[in-house]
Here is the input.
Amino acid sequence: MTPKSDLKIFQNFLKNPTIMCIFLRMNLLLGMLYGLVAQILTFLQLQGNVKYHWFEKYPIIMLSSAIPISYLFIKSVEYFVLYFGGQIWPSRLIGFSIGIIVFAFMSYFIFGEPINLKTVICLLLGLCILLIQVLWK
Here is the structure.
């Protein structure tokens, strides 16, 4: 097989609506997974110093952790842009929503901050933004 014939097979493969739907959903799921991991690591990088004081002793480790975190955010946006057909705005709103949800739960589990009515409303708004971006075509 030649590279051209491989490309032709792949293009025909993607013309199948079922395969294309699975391919697109994988982009959405991968974007969310990369975004979730990046948001968790960002929370630990930025707020970790308050809880775990060893971060103060090793600022170079904290600064260098920004490189893999940035890579995760870049990959997240790439997958979202693929899913949304080249649009970048949905990736920003989904990233924001994931960040709000991660921040609320990490604050609760790591710092013991209570989830009050204001936090619940913010979580619901973040979830609504997320659902609007994913479900509204």
In short: The helical segments are 3-15, 17-51, 54-57, 59-64, 66-83, 89-111, 117-135. Residues 45 and 65 are 8 Å apart (CA to CA). The radius of gyration is 19 Å. The chain has one domain: 3-135.
